[in-house]
Design a protein that fits this description.
By secondary structure, the chain is α+β, with helices and mostly antiparallel strands. Helix content is 27%, strand content 23%. The protein is globular, with a radius of gyration of 19 Å. Bound molecules: fe (ii) ion.
Length: 289
C-alpha cells in the first residue's frame, strides 16, 4: 500500500460542527460515478473546475480551481483548505460522506490525461465513525479524524461504512505537471509529518472454505440482483484478508456458473470499467440488460 499518513491537525470541534450542520442540509443528488456506490454517498464541491456548486466531476483543469458557493457556508473547512494546503496545484476540494454504503473496488485517474503519478489525492476524515474503513490493495485501515492521508487512488482501493454513523471527510486533490515532492502540497510546513502509524483493521483469514461460500452465490445470482451481489462481494475484502480486485474474479466466476452469458459479459465489463480504463464520459449501468 502506497497510501500513508502525511500529517495530522487538531480539529476545532465547535467550528467544525457549524460546517457539518450546513453540509447535512445540502440535498443528496445523483452523483458522478453513482454506479460505483450504493447507499448514502454524498460529495459536495468546495473548489472545482468551474466554480459551480453542483459540478461534482473530477477532471483536469486549466488554471486554478475555483471556489463554489458552498465555501461561504463552510468557513472552517475552507480555511483548512487555504491555510493547511498550498493551493497553487489545487484541482478540487470536496467533502465526502458515506453511510451504510460501499464503494466498489476501483482505480481513479484512468480516464484523465496525465500520468497517474502526477495526481495527488489527500483525504481527511472529520468525524469518528468506528465502522468506516478504507482499503488500498492488501490493506484495510480506519482513518482517524484529523489525519491527513495520501490516498493512492491510482491503485485498487475502496471504502465502506458498515454503520449509519456519519463519516464526513475532506478530500483535497492536487495535480502537477512534472516530478514533485509530497511536502509541496502544504502551505504550513509544520503540518507535514509523515511516518505516523495507521490504525489497521484486523481481518479474518481468507480460506478455501470462504471462497466456496462466496462462489455458492451462483445459486442466487440473477440479473435483478446482480447489482446487490456486486456490492455484497465488494464488502468481503474489508472482513477477510483478500485483495479487493478479487471482487471481480468472484463475480465473473459466479456469473459463469449461472450460464447466463449476458451476466458474464457485464461482470467482465464492470471489472474493466472500474480497474482498467474508462473514458471521462463513460458511464455504466448495472441494471439494464
Ligand atoms: Fe476512488
Amino acid at each position: 500500500m502506497r497510501s500513508h499518513i502525511l500529517g495530522k491537525i487538531e480539529l476545532d470541534q465547535q467550528r467544525l460542527k457549524l460546517d457539518l450542520d450546513y453540509l447535512e442540509t445540502v440535498p443528496v443528488v445523483q452523483e458522478e460515478y453513482d454506479e460505483f456506490s450504493n447507499g448514502y454517498w454524498k460529495n459536495i464541491p468546495l473548489w472545482n473546475a468551474s466554480g459551480q456548486a453542483d459540478d461534482r466531476l473530477y477532471r483536469d483543469i486549466e488554471g486554478g480551481a475555483v471556489a463554489t458557493e458552498h465555501t461561504a457556508r463552510t468557513p472552517y473547512l475552507s480555511e483548512i483548505v487555504t491555510s493547511v494546503f498550498n493551493t497553487a496545484h489545487l484541482q478540487m476540494a470536496r467533502t465526502r460522506n458515506l453511510k451504510n454504503a460501499v464503494v466498489i473496488p476501483h482505480r481513479d485517474f484512468v480516464e484523465l490525461d496525465r500520468n497517474a503519478d502526477l495526481y495527488f489525492r489527500t483525504f481527511m476524515v472529520l468525524e469518528e465513525s468506528p465502522r468506516a474503513y478504507h482499503s488500498n490493495e492488501d490493506t484495510v485501515v480506519r482513518f482517524r479524524p484529523g489525519e491527513i492521508w495520501f490516498l493512492d487512488a491510482a491503485s485498487e482501493h475502496s471504502a465502506v461504512n458498515l454503520s449509519e454513523l456519519s463519516r464526513q471527510s475532506l478530500c483535497v486533490d492536487f495535480a502537477f505537471d512534472g516530478p514533485f515532492d509530497e511536502k509541496e502540497i502544504f502551505a504550513d510546513p509544520t503540518v507535514y509529518s509523515p511516518g505516523g502509524e495507521p490504525e489497521f483493521v484486523p481481518r479474518k483469514p481468507f480460506t478455501s472454505e470462504t471462497r466456496d461460500r462466496i462462489l455458492s452465490l451462483a445459486n442466487v445470482l440473477e440479473r435483478d440482483n446482480f447489482r446487490d451481489v456486486l456490492f455484497m462481494l465488494s464488502k468481503v475484502h474489508f472482513l477477510y484478508e483478500v485483495h479487493p480486485a478479487q471482487t471481480y474474479t468472484w463475480l465473473v466466476d459466479i456469473a459463469k456458473a449461472t450460464g447466463d452469458e449476458k451476466m458474464v459479459t457485464k461482470a467482465e465489463q464492470i471489472r474493466a470499467f472500474a480497474i482498467d480504463a474508462r473514458a471521462l464520459t463513460d458511464r455504466f449501468s448495472l441494471t439494464s440488460w
